[in-house]
Amino acid sequence: FGSFDTCNRAAVVTFLWRAAGSPEPKSTRNPFVDVKAGDFFYKPVLWAVENGITTGTSATTFKPDGPCSRGQIVTFLHRAAGSPEPTVNVNPFRDVSASSPFYKAILWAVEQGITTGTSDTTFSPNSLITREQMATMICRAYKKTKNAEWVHISYTKHNRHQNLIYKSGVYVLD
User: Fold this and answer.
1) Contact, 62 vs 56, CB < 8 A?
2) Of 88, 90, 98, 138, whose Cβ has the fewest other Cβ atoms within 10 Å?
3) Which residues of 76-108 are buried (b: 16+ CB within 10 A; e: fewer)?
4) How buried is residue 1: exposed, middle or buried, by Cβ count under 10 Å (0-12/13-18/19+)?
5) For residue 121, what is the DSSP state?
6) pLDDT of 100-145, one tens digit each?
7) C-alpha to C-alpha distance for 120 and 122, rounded to whole angstroms
8) Element (H, E) at 156
């Protein structure tokens, strides 16, 4: 699984897509020159774009191999949940200003119990996320927002197919 490996943007949207049940994208319109039809992340990226989860890093690039930060993953999760307004209006994090593009997503994710800060006063929105942290956040988000009793994420790493299953607070890797 590579728990402590840094997670890239392609992996994050693929995990989100699989946690959502691997739905078929409604469109084959692909605005990104760096996402090709044969890529393992092709359908996940199309799905994420059409559902407003990501817009890419520009109008024509997605940067699939680009690392994903803590701020980006909570923003993807927030958008996947429909971008609900956080009900808290007190920000405990010195490193997250109200002008940050991640501000509402971070407040929402902390409020929902999807994640916490890296300390009582810092969130570290620009720190890179590991595969373990990403899987934990996705599973918590789907448990909270979809009332899921379990979350199943299937993936391939180093040509080995594996499944990560979250049920009742326990992660099982088969």
Assistant:
1) yes
2) 90
3) bbbbbbeeeebeeeebebebbeeebebbbbbbb
4) middle
5) S
6) 999 999 999 999 988 888 999 999 999 999 877 887 888 788 777 6
7) 6
8) strand 150-157
